[in-house]
Amino acid sequence: MSQLFKVTSSPHVKSKDSTSRIMLDVVLALIPAGLFSIYFFGFDALVIILLSVISCVGAEYVWQKLTNQPVTVKDFSALITGILLAYNLPSNVPFWIPIIGGVFAIILVKQFFGGLGQNFMNPALAARAVLLTSWAGHMSNFAIDGVSSATPLTAISLGEGALPPLSDVFVGTIGGSLGETSALFLLLGAAYLMYRGVISWRIPITYVGTVFALTYLFGGNGLYEIFAGGLILGAFFMATDYSTSPMTSKGHILFGIGCGLLTVVIRKFAGLPEGVSYAIILMNLAVPLIDRYTRPRTFGEVA
Q: What is the pTM of this model?
C-alpha cells in the first residue's frame, strides 16, 4: 500500500477560502455603491462612512483588549459592519449618530454574544433599528445638497408628491440612505459576490421575488418598490449574513420568503415606509426554528 489515509473526526474543511478572504470580497462588493454615494451626496457621505467604520473597528479592538481576547479586527468583519451601518444612514445625520451606532452594533449585538459567528441578529441592522427608534428625526431626514427631500417610498406611503422616474430610482439619483439608493451599483457588487461563491441566489432572489409578487397582488408597482428602498442592499448584503441566516438550502428559501412577506406587510400596513430592516431582524430571530425543521435527516435515522 503506497499511500496512507488519515482518518479524523468532522468537521472536515474542504474550502481554501478563509473568513478574512470572504469578508474582503464583501468589502470589495460594497465599494461601488459607496463611491456613488460620495459622488452623489458629497463630502458628508465620506465622513459618515469613515466615522462608522472607525467606530466599529475601534470598538471591537478596545473591547477585545479590555477582555483579554484575541484581537480579530484583521478578519474585516467589523469593517463590514461599519460600512453597512453607514449605508443605512442619511448623509446629513449628526456625526455622533454613526459613533453610537457602531459601538452598539459591535459591543452589544456582536461581542456580548461571543463575537463573530455567535451574534443572533445582524449587528448593523440592529444598530439602525435602535438609532431609528431613539432619534427618528435625524434618521428620517434625507437631504440632497442641503435640501430635505422625501424618499420615493415615503411619497408612496403618504400618497403625496410626484415620484421620480424608475430610471432615476435604479441609478440612485434620489433621496435616501447613503448606500441603499443605487440599485445599479449594489447589483454590480452582488453579481461579484455570486461569481465568487460568497452568496447563493436562494435568499436574495426569493426575498426580492416575494416582494415583487406581493406588491403587485396589493395593487402596487412591484418593480418600483424593489429599487426604491433598501431592499437590494438588505436582500444581497444583509439577509445573506452567514451568522444570522439558516444553514440549509430549504431554510434559505423559507427565510427569503419570510423576509419578503414581512417587508410588504410593514410597508403596506405599518406606519413605516421601509420595512427591510425590521423584516430581516424578525427573520433572524426565527433562524433556529427554521434550522430545526429543515435539518437533513441523519444517515440511518428512522423517522
A: 0.90
